[in-house]
Specification:
Layout lengths: L10 E5 L8 H7 L5 E6 L2 H7 L6 E4 L6 H9 L3 E4 L8 H11 L4 E5 L6 H10 L9 E6 L2 E6 L2 E6 L5 E17 L6 E5 L9 E2 L4 E6 L1 E9 L4
Parallel strand pairs: 1-2, 1-5, 2-3, 3-4, 5-6
Antiparallel strand pairs: 6-7, 7-13, 8-12, 9-10, 9-11, 9-12, 9-13
Length: 225
């Protein structure tokens, strides 16, 4: 009886309308483009184009794209899902929901940061949407990748000397233990509002974090931050 092979992840690259902020983390995400569906949040279609990619889907109220641009992307094969400007969701949120609805198990969002602190903060919180449960969804900018982990054990891949920050989200994170980090945690509580978990350093190419309860924002920076 043959051994069952693991199911390949269903990859989606999302381009938002923020800054490209090119860097090694962004380029690592773009390496998956040949196997990924490309979803653009409104003006993020331009960002995808700058990276040499054509969106498969453009979603949003299209206030950041001209009619001519939308027509050009449609002629290149993009599906356009235009929504009313009087909506409750941001365009990035709609793009994440569209990826989830298409069965994505791996999402990397590029261009989700920029000069709008409110949009950046909202983008982090979008990773908590129940539609993304079980999906490896991360924000990517420059040298940094950000994601959220909950109770359990989690592997952290990188390189010795990389910066690794663990930031509590939505309350205290309790029973936090780490492996292969320069400043270890041995079952402590990371208190919401304090910065104790910021700027740790990876001591190996694979580190680990485990927690008993709560949520942690993980920010991995290539090299020293």
């Amino acid at each position: 009886m043959s051994e069952r092979q693991p199911t390949a992840p269903r990859r989606v690259l999302i381009f938002a309308a923020g800054d490209l902020n090119d860097g090694p983390a962004v380029r690592a995400a773009l390496e998956h483009a040949p196997q990924a569906a490309i979803i653009a949040a409104d003006g993020g279609a331009r960002l995808a184009e700058r990276c040499g990619l054509r969106p498969d889907l453009i979603v949003g109220d299209l206030d950041s794209l001209s009619g001519e641009e939308a027509d050009r992307f449609a002629a290149q094969g993009a599906t356009i899902e235009r929504v009313t400007p009087h909506k409750d969701e941001t365009d990035l949120e709609l793009a994440l929901l569209a990826a989830a609805a298409r069965g994505a198990t791996w999402i990397r969002a590029i261009g989700a940061t920029g000069d709008r602190l409110d949009q950046t903060l909202a983008a982090v919180h979008m990773l908590l949407m129940p539609q993304l449960d079980g999906c490896d969804a991360r924000l990517v900018a420059g040298r940094q990748t950000l994601w959220v982990v909950g109770p359990g054990e989690h592997a952290l891949d990188g390189a010795p000397g990389d910066t690794l920050s663990l930031i509590p989200l939505a309350g205290d994170a309790r029973g936090v233990r780490t492996e292969a980090l320069e400043y270890p945690l041995r079952g402590e509580t990371l208190v919401m509002g304090a910065a104790r978990g910021v700027s740790n350093v990876m001591a190996a190419s694979r580190a680990g974090v485990a927690l008993e309860s709560g949520l942690l924002v993980v920010v991995h920076t290539v090299g020293r931050a």
